[in-house]
Design goal:
159 residues, 0% strand, elongated, mainly alpha
Length: 159
């Protein structure tokens, strides 16, 4: 009964022992190419504008619809300055756009570094083919050096 509940944790603990999936390898290649471009402030602002507008547009609709009588009274008073509201809305758009994109960049960067560390650990755990054999095990013949040796079943022979 408890095994299905522990399965995600077992997978998480065993994640360091497995190789990267195709999706993770694709992400590493993508992030290596695009990480510096996506870190630029202007790009973060331009890409994040829709999220900022997602917050500001309902606020403007709420303000102009007149359903909140107290806000309507304030808007019609002599002390109300529409420029202050406009600047506040622009600041909300800008802050939200940049903050969200920076957060997203940090999340991608963290994932990238974790995958690189996992890839490094898994490659360090696997013996490299060029590593010298220990004294206890007999040396394996190199299939490339001996063309008469049978091909390894796990690999496709070169043609």
């Amino acid at each position: 009964m408890a095994l299905p509940l522990l399965t995600p944790y077992i997978r998480y603990l065993a994640a360091d022992q497995i190789m990267l999936t195709k999706e993770e390898s694709d992400f590493i290649r993508y992030w290596e190419k695009n990480r510096l471009r996506q870190k630029k402030l202007v790009r973060q602002f331009l890409v994040g504008i829709p999220l900022g507008l997602l917050i500001v547009i309902p606020t403007v609709i709420s303000f102009t619809s007149g359903w909140y009588k107290r806000a309507d009274m304030e808007a019609n008073s002599a002390d109300f300055n529409p420029m202050v509201l406009f600047i506040a809305l622009l600041l909300i758009v800008g802050f939200t756009a940049i903050f969200y994109q920076r957060w997203k960049w940090e999340q991608y960067e963290q994932r990238y570094r974790e995958l690189l560390a996992r890839e490094e650990r898994s490659s360090a755990a696997r013996p490299s083919p060029s590593a010298a054999p220990s004294g206890d095990t007999p040396a394996q013949p190199d299939p490339q050096a001996d063309p008469a040796a049978p091909p390894d079943l796990g690999q496709v022979p070169d043609q």
